[in-house]
């Protein structure tokens, strides 16, 4: 394993153990067994390294979610049952991947104050919206998803995900379950109709 890979692994471990704000360059280099100069050489800055590690972790979460959804997919499920099944998988990841979600929350707050965080976070959010749209909107018969629908549904699901994560990190017992989320959206849809 090269220094770059060692640093990424160390960054993921430090994010898990210490969080985003409390992880220092020294923490990273000590955990990786490399010099401080290695961070600059491979990533440019400590923040860039942490962002790369966080992005990698979120991508892996998305891949695990896709696999879990594919394995548990019920071809005969109604759209409401499918929605609840997807959110059940997502919500269960909050416990499994709690350090990831806590670090992500820290980054969201920091992005307000650190301009260098906004660009990669914006790109990551766009990728997330697209991925969520693919999960929640099955392709039409012609095999593609309408861009406007995808943006709207992906953005709404990302908003729900972010809100649920925040609630869950603070008070998981009061956060909505997948079925409660589906019921709440159904109530709102009736009110809007």
TrEMBL record:
Stored PROSITE patterns: HTH_TETR_2 (PS50977)
Keywords: DNA-binding, Repressor, Transcription, Transcription regulation
InterPro entries cross-referenced by the UniProt entry: BetI_C, Homeodomain-like_sf, HTH_TetR, Tet_transcr_reg_TetR-rel_C_sf
Protein name: TetR/AcrR family transcriptional regulator
DNA-binding feature ranges: 24-43
One Pfam family this sequence matches: TetR_N
Coiled-coil segments on the chain, per record: none
Highest rank taxon of the organism: Bacteria
A GO MF label: DNA binding
Protein species of origin: Actinomadura rudentiformis
Ranges for domain HTH tetR-type: 1-61
């Amino acid at each position: 394993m090269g220094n770059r890979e060692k640093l990424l692994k160390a960054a993921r471990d430090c994010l898990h153990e210490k969080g985003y704000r409390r992880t220092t360059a020294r923490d990273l280099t000590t955990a990786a067994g490399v010099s401080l100069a290695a961070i600059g050489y491979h990533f440019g800055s400590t923040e860039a390294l942490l962002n790369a590690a966080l992005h990698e972790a979120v991508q892996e979460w998305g891949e695990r979610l896709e696999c879990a959804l594919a394995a548990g997919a019920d071809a005969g499920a109604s759209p409401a049952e499918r929605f609840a099944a997807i959110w059940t998988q997502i919500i269960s990841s909050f416990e499994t991947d709690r350090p990831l979600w806590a670090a992500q929350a820290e980054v969201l707050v920091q992005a307000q104050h650190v301009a260098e965080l906004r660009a990669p976070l914006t790109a990551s959010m766009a990728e997330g919206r697209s991925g969520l749209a693919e999960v929640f909107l099955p392709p039409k018969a012609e095999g593609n998803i309408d861009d406007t629908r995808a943006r709207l549904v992906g953005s709404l699901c990302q908003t729900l995900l972010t809100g649920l994560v925040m609630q869950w990190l603070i008070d998981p017992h009061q956060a909505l379950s997948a079925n409660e989320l589906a019921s709440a959206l159904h109530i709102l849809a009736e009110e809007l109709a």
